[in-house]
């Protein structure tokens, strides 16, 4: 009989292919170890050390997980379960159980709401002290959300500028990552070895603790005050004096928090002003878009009519 | 009976997967090696090793170079890496030597120029996000042309040391500081109607002369180095004919070339929605109206 889904084998299979399937892992687990300590999820912290070495899941009992999870307790053929460790029965079909030892979905996706909340609060709180390991799990879920919100609020005030937001964000992320990698002190030799042994997948390692993922993550999280400013821009036109003041304050806030984070993550001491200037320029770009997207007080159209 | 999702069970598929992984790894290593060939990361890091005090004093120096002395870069003696007892001299990084060129100021000045032009256009009511891209492309053309001039000069002047080229590239970016000052002052005085008029031309002339003086004094040490400096690694004395050629290049570069580029950069104004060079020539093209 055909087996549906990704279940490795039903019982009637001949013995040879059964053992071949035992040695395969559908997903090569690739939870990287960060050079600055930190495991992003509890599951990874517990099993991360073991995954690399258990690539060919050893036990004679069938290893049915989606990856090399050690100490796989779920053997086949247990009472009440089906061939492959899943519970059967229509009640279980509507339930959310999965294989034994499977991590929760959000952990597997790498979305850690606790971390997202912590980073967001760090941005919003100007006097917070920033932990050096805060950016070890450089997730991009928060930044994508904030960029999408920014674009949406611009849309609600009349302009369809998602493409420009995206382009500016990408260009800024690449160039700021390059600049700050250049400005941060070079890695010592053992840090270089640790980083390279994990083969980050980045093609150009610029000898810094900053990577493109971390830079983009910091930049995206610190965009939050400008998102608030653009939300305000839906309600009142930002092209007035109060609009200028609000956007300038938002830019200052963004720059303040992102320069603090970059100085900590990139280990650039005593250079905060120099770090803050390019960040200010980057957020001024977004601020320009926020201001000039509003329908305005009519001044813009009046100016256009005159010239 | 075929198995759905069973294609990964096949040993051939496994082998294919392994091959794919190793191919990707080889590709990444290839890119890394070539990237390091084109952009020497450790050399570039030297140019970004700046401090607050350096940035402030260098910016002031670019705008008011008249009374500064000396202009030579400081050197330090470090033990040679080959451990044969000799010392190699190296230039001090920008953090410790105000005469050392850096790439932080030129890069920041370039980006500030793009944003400032767009901001002024926006305050005139002429903002559109394409302006960011247009100004950026325009300034990039200037930079590329300048790099071309430097690259040609390298062949004619037989400059072989790599750090000298990076120095020249860094020095070519300092004119953006003067350009920014010109545009900002003119915008304030003219209320954003472009950089024409008495004030605009006066400030432009001043910043141009300051930039030319700065380049003359600084590049003298790059192009005509004394014999035992680190920028002359092979310790060759430069022949007289070559010296005079280099001096001529220096003069032409500092005055004529910089004048052309600075004028191009400052003369754009966007008052009518199309970048118009002062003097009335419109730049037609995709955005011409």
Automatic annotation (TrEMBL), chain A:
Residues 124-288 form the Yip1 domain. GO terms for biological process: endoplasmic reticulum to Golgi vesicle-mediated transport; vesicle fusion with Golgi apparatus. The chain crosses the membrane at residues 161-180, 218-236, 242-265, 274-293. InterPro entries: Yip1/4-like (IPR045231), Yip1_dom (IPR006977). The keyword Ribosomal protein does not apply. The keyword Transcription regulation does not apply. Pfam families: Yip1 (PF04893). One of its GO terms (cellular component) is trans-Golgi network. It is a multi-pass membrane protein. It is found in: Golgi apparatus membrane; Membrane. Keywords: Membrane, Transmembrane, Transmembrane helix. Belongs to the YIP1 family. This is Protein YIP. It comes from Friedmanniomyces endolithicus. The lineage of its organism: Eukaryota, Fungi, Dikarya, Ascomycota, Pezizomycotina.
Automatic annotation (TrEMBL), chain B:
Pfam families: YIF1 (PF03878). It is a multi-pass membrane protein. The keyword Transit peptide does not apply. InterPro entries: Yif1_fam. Keywords: Endoplasmic reticulum, Golgi apparatus, Membrane, Protein transport, Transmembrane, Transmembrane helix, Transport. Residues 73-95 are annotated as: Disordered. GO terms for biological process: endoplasmic reticulum to Golgi vesicle-mediated transport; protein transport. One of its GO terms (cellular component) is COPII-coated ER to Golgi transport vesicle. The chain crosses the membrane at residues 104-123, 135-156, 168-189, 195-216. The keyword Transport applies. Residues 73-91 have a biased composition (Polar residues). It is found in: Endoplasmic reticulum membrane; Golgi apparatus membrane. Has a role in transport between endoplasmic reticulum and Golgi. Belongs to the YIF1 family. This is Protein YIF1. It comes from Friedmanniomyces endolithicus.
């Amino acid at each position: 009989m055909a087996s549906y889904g990704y279940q490795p084998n039903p019982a009637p299979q001949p013995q040879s292919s059964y053992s071949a399937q035992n040695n395969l892992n559908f997903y090569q687990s690739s939870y990287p170890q960060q050079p600055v300590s930190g495991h992003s999820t509890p599951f990874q912290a517990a099993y991360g050390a073991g995954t690399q070495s258990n690539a060919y899941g050893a036990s004679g009992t069938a290893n049915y997980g989606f990856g090399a999870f050690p100490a796989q307790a779920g053997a086949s053929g247990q009472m009440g379960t089906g061939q492959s460790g899943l519970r059967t029965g229509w009640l279980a079909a509507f339930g959310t159980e999965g294989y034994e030892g499977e991590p929760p979905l959000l952990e597997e996706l790498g979305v850690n709401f606790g971390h997202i909340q912590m980073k967001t609060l760090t941005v919003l709180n100007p006097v917070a002290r920033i932990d050096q390991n805060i950016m070890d799990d450089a997730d991009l879920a928060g930044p994508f959300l904030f960029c999408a919100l920014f674009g949406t609020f611009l849309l609600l005030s009349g302009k369809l500028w998602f493409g420009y937001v995206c382009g500016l964000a990408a260009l800024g992320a690449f160039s700021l990552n390059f600049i700050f990698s250049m400005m941060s002190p070079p890695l010592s030799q053992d840090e270089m070895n640790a980083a390279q042994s994990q083969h980050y997948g980045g093609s150009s390692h610029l000898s810094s603790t900053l990577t493109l993922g971390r830079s983009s993550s910091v930049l995206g999280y610190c965009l939050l005050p400008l998102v608030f400013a653009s939300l305000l821009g839906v309600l009142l036109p930002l092209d007035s004096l109060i609009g200028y003041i609000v956007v300038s304050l938002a830019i200052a806030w963004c720059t303040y928090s992102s320069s603090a984070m970059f100085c900590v993550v990139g280990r650039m001491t005593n250079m905060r002003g120099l770090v803050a200037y390019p960040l200010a320029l980057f957020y001024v770009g977004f601020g320009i878009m926020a201001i000039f997207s509003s329908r305005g007080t009519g001044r813009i159209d009046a100016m256009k009519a005159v010239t | 009976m075929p198995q759905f999702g069973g294609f990964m069970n096949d040993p051939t598929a496994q082998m294919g997967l392994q091959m794919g992984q190793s191919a990707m790894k080889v590709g990444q290593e290839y890119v890394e090696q070539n990237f390091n060939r084109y952009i020497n990361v450790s050399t570039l890091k030297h140019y970004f090793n700046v401090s607050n005090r350096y940035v402030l004093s260098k910016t002031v120096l670019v705008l008011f170079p008249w009374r500064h002395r000396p202009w030579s870069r400081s050197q330090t003696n470090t033990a040679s890496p080959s451990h044969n007892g000799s010392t190699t001299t190296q230039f001090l990084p920008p953090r410790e030597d105000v005469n050392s060129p850096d790439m932080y100021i030129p890069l920041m000045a370039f980006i500030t120029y793009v944003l400032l032009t767009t901001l002024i256009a926006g305050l005139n009511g002429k903002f559109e996000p394409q302006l960011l891209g247009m100004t950026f492309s325009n300034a990039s053309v200037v930079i590329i042309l300048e790099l071309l001039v430097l690259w040609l000069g390298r062949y004619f002047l037989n400059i072989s040391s790599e750090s000298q080229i990076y120095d020249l590239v860094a020095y070519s970016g300092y004119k953006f500081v003067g350009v920014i000052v010109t545009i900002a002052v003119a915008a304030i005085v003219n209320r954003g109607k472009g950089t024409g008029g008495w004030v605009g031309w006066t400030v432009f002339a001043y910043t141009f002369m300051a930039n030319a003086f700065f380049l003359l004094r600084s590049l003298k040490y790059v192009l005509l180095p004394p014999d035992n400096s680190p920028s002359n690694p092979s310790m060759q004395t430069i022949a007289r004919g070559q010296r005079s050629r280099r001096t001529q290049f220096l003069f032409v570069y500092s005055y004529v070339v910089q004048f052309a580029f600075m004028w191009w950069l400052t003369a754009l104004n966007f008052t009518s929605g199309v970048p118009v060079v002062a003097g009335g020539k419109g730049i037609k093209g995709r955005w011409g109206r």
